[in-house]
Amino acid sequence: MTEQEEREYLQRLQARVEKIAADFPEKEGKDIVRAYAYAAEAHKNQRRKSGEPYIMHPVAVAENINQMGLDAESVMAGLLHDTVEDTAVTSADIAREFSPAVAMLVDGVTKLTQMEHTAYSTKEEQQMEDLRKMFIAMAKDIRVIMIKLADRLHNMRTIQFQKPQKQRDISVETMEIYAPLAHRLGMQGVKWELEDRSLQILDPVGYKEISDYLEDKSHGFSAFLEATKKRIEEKLEQVGIPCQVKARLKSVYSIYRKLYGQNLSFSELYDICATRVIVKELTDCYNVLGLIHDIYKPVPGRFKDYISTPKPNGYQSLHTVVIGTEGIPFEVQIRTEEMDHRAEYGIAAHWKYKDGLKGSQKEEAFAWVRQLIENQQDTDATDFIKNIKTDLFADEVYVFTPRGDIINLPQGATPIDFAYAIHSAVGNRMTGAKVNGRIVPIDYQLKSGEIVDVITAKNSTGPKRDWMQIVKTNSARSKIKQWFKKERREENIAEGQAVFEKELRVNLLYEPFQQPELQAAILKRFEYPSLEELYAAIGYGGVALNRVIGKIKDEVMRQRAAEAKEAKLEAKLAAQAAKQEKSTADSGVVVEGIGNCMVKFAKCCNPVPGDPIIGFITRGYGVSVHRQDCANVRAAKKGGEDGRWIKTDWVMGERHHYHASIKLTAKSNVGLGGEVLMQLANMKINVSEMTARDTEDGYCDFYLTIGVTSKEQLDLVITRLSRISGVSEVRRMVAGG
Ligand code: MN
User: Fold this and answer.
1) ∠ CA(23), CA(26), CA(27), 5° rounding?
2) Residues 112 and 250 reside in one and the same domain
3) Do the beta carbons of residue 514 and residue 558 sit within 8 Å?
4) Cβ atoms 662, 732 nearer than 8 A
5) CA 127, 132, 138 angle in degrees (round to 5)?
6) 85 tagged catalytic
7) pLDDT at 27 (0 to 100)
8) Averaged pLDDT for residues 499-527
9) 86: annotated active-site residue
């Protein structure tokens, strides 16, 4: 970009910001423009991967936020959202320049961003823990997550500038976390776009197949949709109901799920398009429904009233499927303007219109986030995320109490889930259930519209442990866990210990687990103060048994591998040592059967390494080494002195002792020095020097110089010395260190 081009580019951005500002009262509008100027200055020298000035990203994010219908604080936070992460600006600066509320929002978004960055590089467990933190942060102020969604939306729109692997990582995360979150917040428009863009990266072939199909059909569809629209508008005009009729094709991903999830073919897809009738008054919704069923024949069983029973994310609408003039079934959604806006932007839609939603309603709109987190207090990070994913993805069924109250449950929920959804006390006393008046098994899967009657008994002995495997909702599961945790501690410990030990035996881990160090490591890993607590947790289901067993297995394997390596090394060193015991001094020659004797090379033949050699023992003078073909040897052998000749050989490469210095730090303790020396003696290590020095903090440093034959032997020495109780560190000293 030339300077001139860049100036014009920034002017266009400024104009876009002023357009956002115009949607707000004057004072707030001014703050928004000021936030833009501040962010533009902070990001001045930064570029997006596309090469454009960085500030284009915060502006696009702010536009998304404004479109969602969030307040001025959120728009400002959108403009400033990357300043704390990527520039010298601090959160204190933002609090001072703008407001603590804006600073708090930026802070929340920054934290989420940082988590994302670590999530790619660290192991799965860490990622889970980070996500858990994210959900907790979210519960504090849900605007943080909506700003994050606006950020993600723009990043998905510009994802082509990332490297392919990064594109996939971001898309997986978007599909798994952000799209379901958008769904849960009722932001359908955001959800569809995130899904379609992720799908395009994750399955480009599948995506293209569907979009080509839609493209291909779009002409036919648009004629059909036009005709339908006209017909409905005319009919409603006759009866004097003002309305707006919109028609659109469904999202690529929703079709993708039908094709691959429900295994349908293109010809079996009939509700590819949705027609929406938007009216002013709520009562008109039902009138319009009647009129539509008048002109088109409804498909039985496809009518849904989400107005009287909103979806958990707040979505409200009437849905019906009718058969069009050419026999093509299509879906009609009927709702008010307000419901329509909310369907697109969910609870975000309430922020700007302060009168739209009272504080308490706003609370209620995202009570599920709090609930989700409260239900999860007792689970670890991995389960937490798994549970959140199931909660986010669950399709709902609607069932009734005998008094006609509606209870909303995920698909696959059982009467136990129903009972716990009414009240913990109902669940805890449940002994059976009736559906539409008939007794059903407790693992029966409820269907929408059924009337469920829970049978309870005052003297019930409480829930059964296997219910935890049967229930579908996490809230029922955690309530059952709670019950066992509270009511049955002794039983939990006994039960937990029994299943744990059985599982240990099955896995041949019972013996290995008896080591105190291993037990301590496992308790520490799962954060239980004692074995009893671990048993209790296994008993009430606070920790999954297979995860504990898995960790023990890992730990034992690790230990065994280390031991095996050590044993192998030891054997090798022992073999070397044995060989050396045969040897003489440092001459480079081995004399079979004799240790530690003096060796000298015979002057008559001057053997050099590689020559076949033989030794001649002279009492009091050690061994003299000759070449085997030396004339003196032949002469002496002939002279009948055979008994004094001895086999000798060169030692290649293994004979060099070298000195190593090590430093050992230990808790000051009388007798430790002796123990160190004893350990070294056992290993046949020669110690040439040892000094000790007390340090101020109650520790003692030992400096040792030892003779070793190899690096491997030195490593073994260090491992062995580290094991001495009280020793905190052993390391090799290098010159100058
Ligand atoms: Mn960003």
Assistant:
1) 120
2) no
3) no
4) yes
5) 125
6) yes
7) 94
8) 85
9) yes
Rounded to whole angstroms, how far apart are CA atoms 418 and 400? 9
Report the pLDDT value the prediction gives residue 704, as an integer from 0 to 100. 87
- Tell how far the Cα of 356 is from the centroid of ligand 1, in angstroms: 29
pLDDT above 80: residue 301: no
- Percent share of the chain, pLDDT over 90: 20
pLDDT: is 733 or 11 the higher one?
Answer: 11
Q: Which residues contact 181 (CB under 8 A, 6 or more apart)?
A: 145, 149, 392
* From 85, 176, 532, 701, active-site residue: 85
Q: Which of 23, 52, 86, 396 is catalytic?
A: 86
Q: How far, in Å, from the CA of 114 to the mean position of ligand 1?
A: 11
145 and 293 inside one domain:
no
SS3 state of residue 263: coil
Q: Would you say how long the chain is, in residues?
A: 737
Strands 273-279 and 329-336: parallel
Q: Are residues 123 and 69 in the same domain?
A: yes
**From the CA of 138, how far away is ligand 1's center (Å)?**
17
pLDDT digits (tens, 9 = 90+) for 45-59: 899 998 899 999 999
447-502: per-residue pLDDT in tens? 877 889 999 888 888 888 889 888 988 888 888 888 888 877 888 888 889 989 88
Does the residue 256 lie in any domain? yes
Residue 382 above 80 pLDDT? no
* Separation of CA 313 and ligand 1 centre (Å): 26
Give me Rg for the CA atoms of the chain: 39
Residue-range definition of the domain harbouring residue 608:
589-650
Q: Which of 44, 47, 37, 99 is nearest to 74 (CA)?
A: 99
Indicate whether 387 belongs to any domain: no
**Distance of CA 81 from the midpoint of ligand 1 (Å):** 6
**What residues pair up with 399 in beta bridges, in sequence order?**
407
CA 86 to centroid of ligand 1, rounded, Å? 10
Does 500 share its domain with 479? no
Distance 254 CA to ligand 1 centre (A): 27
CB 627 within 8 A of CB 607: yes
- Mean pLDDT, rounded, for 633-647: 68
Residue 103, Cβ neighbours under 10 Å: how many? 21
Q: What is the predicted pLDDT for the residue at 372?
A: 56
598 Cα to the center of ligand 1, angstroms: 78
How does residue 579 score in pLDDT terms, banded at 50, 70 and 90? low
